[in-house]
Design a protein that fits this description.
- There is one protein chain.
- The chain has about 300 residues and is an alpha/beta fold.
- The chain has a single domain, classed as 3-Layer(aba) Sandwich (UDP-N-acetylmuramoyl-L-alanine:D-glutamate ligase).
- Strands 5-4-1-8-9-10-11-12-13 form a nine-stranded mixed beta sheet, sandwiched between helices. The protein has a four-stranded mixed beta sheet with strand order 3-2-6-7.
- Helix 4 links the parallel strand 8 and strand 9.
């Protein structure tokens, strides 16, 4: 099995009423992969400022190499103002432009992506030309491409999302994003039919749709798998979807049975929701303990 999974895109500070916390979907996915025993690398960019220095220190503290965290002189480190008035539906105000909009292409990145099992990317990091062009180049070197859709208005266009779908092997999105994407094509919005249509239209090996507290769906091998939500006391949902994706990729990479993989991923996302912040310390053993507790109820 080759070295790692590479996550490309934003790293930033989520500014909450309680203070600031490191975040950004690709970063969160990389942290949770590492915590679940899968080596992960992060390609991103921070500003040459105190916030950037703090983020690099945090990346390192989570066991991720800062080797591919670029340092920019011209733009500040990314900041997002999160509104957590509704714990189950966090909203974000994303500052633009910032350092991660300017991830530069370097030959070393091509080599990193070529050697990795998977490249994980989202639509948010493609909002600006510089990072988008770098991503497009790296996609050509990836063995397996995972599109974590993550559409944050107004930071995406139909054209870019369609292009990124066309490059993907596996796509993960939430049920709101599925409905919006299907409306672009004037197609069926029933989740099962929509997932099957997307898989055929974009030649995808898998389509995964998260449904919040109602669990998740996975279309793969011409079959639909469902996993119920795991009932927990929610502190906040920041990072839950990213932990879900990390768990799903761990199982996918290991060739796990899709239904079991989906159930494990749902439990991982639920576990993170019982903590504040996107990257609490968790382990595979913690996830299995939660599953056993729920099974015993």
């Amino acid at each position: 099995m080759s070295k790692n999974i590479v996550c490309f895109g934003e790293i930033l500070w989520d500014v909450l009423p309680t203070g600031k916390q490191p975040g950004g979907a690709p970063f969160n996915v990389a942290v949770h992969l590492n915590q679940l025993g899968v080596s992960a690398q992060l390609i991103t960019r921070v500003g040459d400022d105190d916030l950037g220095t703090e983020l690099v220190e945090f990346v390192t503290s989570k066991g991720i190499s800062p080797e591919y965290v670029q340092l920019g002189k011209t733009h500040l480190t990314g900041v997002v103002k999160a509104n957590v008035d509704d714990a189950n539906e966090v909203t974000y105000k994303i500052v633009h432009p910032v350092a991660w909009d300017y991830i530069q292409h370097e030959p070393a990145l091509d080599e990193l992506v070529e050697q990795a099992d998977m490249l994980v990317y989202g639509s948010l990091a493609a909002r600006s030309l510089a990072s988008r062009e770098t991503l497009y180049r790296l996609l050509e070197h990836a063995r397996f491409r995972v599109f974590d859709v993550n559409m944050r208005p107004p930071h995406y266009t139909k054209e870019v999302v369609k292009y990124l779908l066309g490059k993907a092997d596996l796509v993960k999105m939430n049920h709101h994003e599925l409905a919006e994407i299907m409306s672009w094509f004037g197609e069926e919005t029933d989740p099962a039919a929509a997932m099957q249509w997307l898989a055929a239209r974009f030649d995808l090996q898998g389509v995964c749709v998260t449904c919040g507290a109602d669990g998740a769906l996975l279309w793969t091998n011409n079959q639909l798998y469902r996993a119920p939500g795991v009932a927990v006391e929610v502190k906040d949902t920041i990072g839950s979807g990213d932990a879900f994706l990390a768990a799903l990729l761990k199982g996918w990479r290991a060739g796990q049975e899709p239904g079991e993989n989906l159930r494990f991923a749902c439990a991982t996302g639920a576990l993170v929701a019982t903590h504040l912040g996107a990257t609490p310390v968790i382990s595979e053993a913690d996830v299995q303990e939660l599953r056993q507790e729920r099974a015993a109820l």
